[in-house]
Amino acid sequence: MKKMDAKPSKSILKMSGVLLLASSLLLSACGSRGGSPSSGSEGGTDSSEPTSITIQTLNYATEFIDSTNPLWKELEKRTNTKLNITWLSPSTAEEKINVMLASGDLPEVTFVETMQNPQLQKMLKQGVFWDLTPFLKDYPNLNREELKEMWEITKVDGKNIVIPRYYPSFGGGVFPMIRKDWLDALQLETPKTLDEFHNVLKAFKEQDPNGNGQADEIPYAANPSALAYIYNIFNETQGAWKLQPDNTLSPIITSDESREAMLWIKQAYDEGLFPKDFAIMKFSQVMDTMRSAKAGVGGMSMNHAWVTGKAVKDVDPKADLMPLAYLENANGVKYTPSGSPYYGVYLIPKKVPEAKVKKILEFFDYGYSQEGNEMLTYGIEGVHYNLENGKKVATPKAVTDKTGDGNLNNMIHLVSDDMAINAVGMPDEVYERNVGIVTERKTVKVPNPSGELYSEAYNKYYPEISKKVEDMRVMVITGKEPVESYDKLIETIKSDPKMKEITEEISKAYQEKFVK
């Protein structure tokens, strides 16, 4: 992925917003408008007739736009299409996607959140969707450098069956966001190792960083699920699996390193570094604790340096939330969260005629051109923003037409790190610091060997196994069970035929996909 350039469009993001994705989103514009010639309404040759395209996709905006929206109309005009878009709310998307796949009643552009969806995997094997491989060479913007990795890792048996929806690899994920003003008040350096991190948390508890003379600080606003990255730090891998020298994968859930990670968390718990209700807190309660300005650390994606940071600052004007770039384990190995360079995929069912498939690809090609990509987020120059000193400055029309707050830029994401590191109203100094931090994160390469793999046994058995281990970990951390109970459970799981079946399937899937 390209290193981020200077932010040419910061001002408009302040006013009209970029999608924050419950979690996160991104920038870098290069490429030119291009694609195959326009085709007719049903994929014919009459270029005067707009092509009707039925699309279903996620939308994180608070208010969904429809075909009366000026930007929607402009997109149709520029692509010679008639768009019929069904927006999916994140809260119900998974259920609706599963019902749709099971019914077989698929829109011409079908969105699925994850390629690991069991029903999708069955349909891929059945050949329900078009193989797009022969066509892609004709669409220059779909072949831009920043998109090459997402096309490669989403191949199915070496073929491009899906159109991946771009998403930045770095900047998202749950990772410590620390009160820099508390560090400064105690004259502490930014922690770089787990030991330093632990010592900072202790200092936050014991040395009154908010300066009010009371022991009211909560060092780390977290619940058990918010600390999953600790297990990854100890295991030196992303996800639930670690690659072994013989090209097999081993589950980190049963590793000795995960036991050490659990005991690290237990020590912090015993020292009172988490909220009193740590074991039963919901995510919303964790975030409320952070927003109360009583906590020194929370686990968030980088855009929360302002999304949550602004709320904390409203309570304590001195507050300054800063993401950590990485943390090192005892072996000196750095860890930072990173993910696949896409989020969700589009597929075209074979019921769609070939000529129309090409028109759909032309539509996406425009969406990934510099002109189309920026229009879907920022709107139209002179209408939704004006260029001032090289920056896009939003007009009032940007707000009324809902540019940059989801909607169209949810369909095709902005190819930019801003998706994950920027937020509405973020001050320049916070943004520039985030740019530096995400640039540093990109130098930390942590393997994720199971990221694109599918296993039926995993889907069938692993959730139950994982829950047993997670429940036991909480019991040990909070002192309700001795560590010997954990050891006994892990030995049982190691010999469980279901776990062995999962491991064999995952290893085989890895070897088939990556071992040549």
UniProtKB/TrEMBL annotation:
PANTHER family: ARABINOSE-BINDING PROTEIN-RELATED (PTHR43649), POLYGALACTURONAN_RHAMNOGALACTURONAN-BINDING PROTEIN YTCQ (PTHR43649:SF33). Coiled coil: none annotated. This is Extracellular solute-binding protein. It comes from Paenibacillus lautus. Keywords: Cell membrane, Lipoprotein, Membrane, Palmitate, Signal. Residues 1-29 form the signal peptide. The keyword Signal applies. It holds the Pfam family SBP_bac_8. Residues 32-51 are annotated as: Disordered.
